[in-house]
Amino acid sequence: MSLEANLALWLGGLTVAAFVISWLGTGLTLRFLRLIGALESPNHRSSHTVPTPNGGGVGPVVALLLTWSVAALSAPAAFGAGTAAPDRILVIAAALGAISWIDDLRRNLSPLVRLAAQVLAVVGGLATIPPGLFLGLPAWAELTLAAVIWVWFINLFNFMDGIDGIAGTQTIAVGFGIAVVAVLLGAAPIHALYGLTAAAAALGFLLWNWRPARVFLGDVGSIPLGYLLGWLLLQLAAHGGWAAAILLPLFFVADASITLLRRVLRGQAPWRAHREHFYQRAAASMGDHAAVVLLMVYLDAFLIVLALAATVIPALAWPAVGVGAVLTAGLLWYLGRRATATRPEDAPFA
Question: What residues does each domain of the chain span?
Answer without folding.
Answer: 3-338
